């Protein structure tokens, strides 16, 4: 019996489902966390129901939650206060609301994201999670019935093609400690009662192509040469995010039933997306579009989105950028399910590199970058491509021990040097860099490449939808090749067009040059399209999200004018801020039929259309000031200001007539 089988046996002894036990035992970190949680919960024997809840805490609760709060949840499961998935979801939501701040901090040579949480109040926790509350079937039926009948017209029109996901979320918000599966069953039950059996028309898949074309036309019309782009739907700005994503199919992208089942266990059956910035600069408005899609698609489908820092290039990364990224994600209103780093998986990635070698899918190569590039262009094999497996394993270990200098050795994937796609011509998996890493210090001198890391961490985090911009489409083949080679779960990959703003630099690399070169006054210089710069200019976060919703999401390239961003800001401010007045070019006006000491207090609305914003006092006296542009010595057609012997309205007061100049 091997080590993994022993671990599975230990977890099954506590009552953990065998499939979950196998999934947990495949990762040392997950196994240790699960075993620790089971012990913390005080198990005295096998308990399948409680062990399932403990495993959910291990796999779903963000790793940044401190041990005290995490152990509190284990105890709540152990003592029976948390007894269902619905209660556990509410409990984890409760803990999430206790987070006071997130910040990156340095300890010795390492860098970590430190999240500060409040202590848990027992009474507040019990009330929020429905501890001791019994919800009857009749009460659940009543909630579901009320929600469905609020949309009865749409349901009868669209029948079984009506999307109940948002309604299910609404039900869970009303009774957050009821298991989502129970609500799902009730929705299905009542939908069947309302609509009856499914007809042949109900079983036909919805037409996608026409809808897709119409959306693309609408997006194009809204973004090309329009002065006022069409506003996003106020009720649901996520409507601009496609419900169905279609991509180029590859045989290597197909998952076996066993992998699909493992993914469901690992993700809890949810949609999982990720926003993976590299911490080598500040986020710009293009990242806002990516966040809108990543977080929005997960939210629209009742799933989770992970904020993952792609920190595999130690020379370019900095704690300043990590803090700034976390701050901007939160400023835009996005809530990551958890914050992770690619460096969290360095040990697992190294072992997967060794596994590639063992499967004859990788080899250690000594070509210089110039030689490797030349061989790729000529589609020639490296001289070291067919070296023995044991030799590559030994040399890879020597790379890790620092026995080679930078550029003297790399680990390359053995794909196909004759492939038409240059990315498939034996890409680099590991390279040597004698640079301390912000989080791991000098522990490693070899670092995985983007092509090696990206897909593997997506799979390790049970990501269901890996969404990225179109320049990464060429990497789709190598992404799936590697996951297939290691027999790991393959997420669905979908590419979308980058945001291109007219006459605006939307490239982190180029913005970094401007900042480092002293051409602008820092990352928040108002002339830049960085999010901190937009915030400094007074852009509300809702306006940025409104802009992202208005331009839509598609694979079609388009150039958007800056006026579209400014329109989104005006639209947001118009409906949310009170009005203020100032006279920029004052011209004194004396009201001759007022006494010198005459004053009146006028009630002026703070917003012309929103009474709820209230009013403020404005004093009217004998002497007032108007703008110079509101007076002319000669009147003319179409001019509505003052002129000699002409009457015009003094705003919020009375009509006045010019008698003397």
Your description of this structure?
- The chain is of the alpha/beta class and about 650 residues long.
- Helix content is about 40%, strand content about 15%.
- It is built from 25 helices and 19 strands.
- The protein has a 4-stranded antiparallel sheet with strand order 6-7-8-9. A 3-stranded parallel sheet has the order 3-4-5. It has a two-stranded antiparallel sheet with strand order 1-2.
- The N and C termini lie far apart (about 105 Å).
- Residues about 220-235 have low confidence and may be disordered.
Write a concise synopsis of the structure shown.
The protein has 661 residues and is of the alpha/beta class. It is 42% helix and 14% strand.
Question: What percentage of residues falls in helices of 4 or more residues?
Answer: 40-55%
> What structural class is derived from the secondary structure elements?
alpha/beta
Assembly status: single chain
Q: Strand tally, please?
A: 19
Q: Round the mean pLDDT to the nearest integer and report it.
A: 87
Helices, by number, come to 25
- Model regions low in confidence, pLDDT < 50 over at least 5 residues: 221-235
Strands in their spatial order, largest beta sheet: 6-7-8-9
Beta-strand content estimate = 5-15%
């Amino acid at each position: 019996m091997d080590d993994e089988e022993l671990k599975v046996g230990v977890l099954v002894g506590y009552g953990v489902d065998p499939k979950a036990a196998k999934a947990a035992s495949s990762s040392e970190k997950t196994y240790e966390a699960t075993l620790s949680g089971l012990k913390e919960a005080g198990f005295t024997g096998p308990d399948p129901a409680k062990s399932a809840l403990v495993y959910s805490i291990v796999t779903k609760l963000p790793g940044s939650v401190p041990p005290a709060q995490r152990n509190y949840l284990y105890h709540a499961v152990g003592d029976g206060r948390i007894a269902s998935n619905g209660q556990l979801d509410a409990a984890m939501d409760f803990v999430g609301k206790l987070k006071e701040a997130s910040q990156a901090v340095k300890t010795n040579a390492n860098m970590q994201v430190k999240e500060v949480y409040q202590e848990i109040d027992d009474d507040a926790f019990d009330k929020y999670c429905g501890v001791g509350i019994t919800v009857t079937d009749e009460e659940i039926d009543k909630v579901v019935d009320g929600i469905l009948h609020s949309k009865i017209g749409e349901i009868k029109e669209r029948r079984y093609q009506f999307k109940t996901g948002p309604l299910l979320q609404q039900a869970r918000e009303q009774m957050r400690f009821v298991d989502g599966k129970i609500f799902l069953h009730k929705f299905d039950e009542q939908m069947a009662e309302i609509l009856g059996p499914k007809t042949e028309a109900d079983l036909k898949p919805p037409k996608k192509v026409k809808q897709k074309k119409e959306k693309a036309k609408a997006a194009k019309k809204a973004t090309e040469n329009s002065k006022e782009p069409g506003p996003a739907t106020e009720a649901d700005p996520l409507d601009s995010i496609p419900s169905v994503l279609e991509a180029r199919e590859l045989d290597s992208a197909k998952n076996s039933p066993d992998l699909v089942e493992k993914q469901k266990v690992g993700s809890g059956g949810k949609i999982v997306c990720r926003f993976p910035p590299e911490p080598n600069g500040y986020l710009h408005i293009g990242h806002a579009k990516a966040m809108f899609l990543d977080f929005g698609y997960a939210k629209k489908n009742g799933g989770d989105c992970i904020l993952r820092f792609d920190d595999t290039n130690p020379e370019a990364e900095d704690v300043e950028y990590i803090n700034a990224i976390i701050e901007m994600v939160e400023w835009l209103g996005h809530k990551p399910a958890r914050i992770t780093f690619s460096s969290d998986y360095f040990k697992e990635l190294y072992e997967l590199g060794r596994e590639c070698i063992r499967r004859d899918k990788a080899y250690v190569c000594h070509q210089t970058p110039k030689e490797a590039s030349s061989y790729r262009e000529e589609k020639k094999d490296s001289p070291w491509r067919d070296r023995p497996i044991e030799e590559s394993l030994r040399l890879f270990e020597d790379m890790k021990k620092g026995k080679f200098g930078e550029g003297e050795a790399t680990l390359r994937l053995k794909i196909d040097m004759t492939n038409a796609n240059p990315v498939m011509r034996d890409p680099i998996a590991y390279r040597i860099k004698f640079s301390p890493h912000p989080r791991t210090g000098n522990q490693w001198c070899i670092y995985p490449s983007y092509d090696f890391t990206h897909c593997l961490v997506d799979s390790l985090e049970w990501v269901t939808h890996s969404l990225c911009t179109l320049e990464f489409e060429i990497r789709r083949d190598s992404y799936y090749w590697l996951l297939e080679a290691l027999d790991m779960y393959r997420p669905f990959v979908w590419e979308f067009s980058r945001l291109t703003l007219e006459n605006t630099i939307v490239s982190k690399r180029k913005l970094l040059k401007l900042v480092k070169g002293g051409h602008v006054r820092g990352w928040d210089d108002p002339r830049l399209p960085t999010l901190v710069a937009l915030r400094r200019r007074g852009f509300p976060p809702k306006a940025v999200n409104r802009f992202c919703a208005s331009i839509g999401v598609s694979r079609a390239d388009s150039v958007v004018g800056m006026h579209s961003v400014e329109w989104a800001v005006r639209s947001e401010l118009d409906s949310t801020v009170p009005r203020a007045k100032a006279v920029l070019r004052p011209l004194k006006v004396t009201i001759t039929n007022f006494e010198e000491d005459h004053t009146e207090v006028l009630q002026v609305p703070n917003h012309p259309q929103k009474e709820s914003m209230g009013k403020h006092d404005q004093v009217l006296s004998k002497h007032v000031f108007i703008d110079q542009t509101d007076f002319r010595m000669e009147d003319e057609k179409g001019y509505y200001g003052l002129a000699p012997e002409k009457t015009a309205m003094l705003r919020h007061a009375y009509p006045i007539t010019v008698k003397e100049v």
